[in-house]
Give the backbone structure.
Amino acid sequence: MIQKVAVIGAGTMGNGIAHVFAQSGFTVNLVDIYTAQLEKALHAIAKNLDRQVAKGTLTEAQKKASLDNISIHSDIAAGIKEAELIVEAATENEVLKLKIFRELDEKAPEHCILATNTSSISITKIAAATNRAGKVIGMHFMNPVPVMKLVEIINGYATEKNVTEKIVSLSKQLNKVPCVVNDYPGFIANRVLMPMINEAIYSLHEGVAGIEEIDTIMKLGMAHPMGPLQLADFIGLDVCHSILNVLYTGLGNPKYAPCPLLSNMVTAGYLGVKSGEGFYKYVSGSKELMVSERFVKK
Ligand code: NAD
């Protein structure tokens, strides 16, 4: 039975992953190269747990127990030395992830399973950087982790069957719904989602409809909680662009090539929520959704 977990990377996803493991009673070592990022993550976790207490889905005592389950480390070796499972959620960069996995393989206990939360990098390639490819697996949580029920579990080419079974049962312990898929570019979530987002951008680019029309049609017509252009802003246009390129090069089919409008927006630094403007404009403190002036017909 897995009890001791280490999470590498304390950013958006890392803090959410640490939160759900800690809330389910696991001991969590949260590791990041930046101490300030670790402090920020602990603060975010406490705030998100407070929200659950306010909603009545968690007691004060459960909140305290969850926080007590988490310790923070800026030294990777110290953070992973007793881990039975490591979930890597560091920056999406292949060179960095291969380096981290080499180090994890070298310093983690021999029986430890190494999982990655990557959105788009090949699990098989990450596994090949280690001497325990059978124990490497994709564990793709969705953002925001404490809220979203899905865990897309990705089998690398060499992942052992008993490792997949352990991760499936562990995901259920986290009160998540696991779905097992095989390792091909974009897995399933992004292979299906990103072409839809790209097609929405193409429709805008070709003047078929405006931003509000495209998003409203998909929200009201398909019961999507968020339109594809708003969702692209939320994910980050740079992230969407990079995943489309992974699909395009990995599957060799031009249908995945990013729309030139998306490429231009990324090059110009219009990245969505994180940069303050994408298809919509984001004003701090305001919840109103305003179409970016660049797309308003004059
Ligand atoms: P982020 O930029 O918010 O956080 C990344 C963290 O990794 C940072 O705190 C950084 O300091 C840390 N880091 C970098 N190098 C490190 C190292 N060598 N050791 C330890 N920590 C290190 O990124 P994120 O959005 O949380 O994404 C993390 C992973 O999750 C990526 O692989 C991404 O593709 C995947 N993912 C992201 C989302 C999302 O919506 N943000 C959704 C699903 C999956």
In short: Residues 8-14, 31-34, 37, 89-92, 96, 100, 117-119, 140, 143, 235 surround nicotinamide-adenine-dinucleotide (CB under 6 Å). The two ends are 62 Å apart (CA to CA). The longest helix spans residues 35-55. The chain has two domains: 4-182, 190-295.
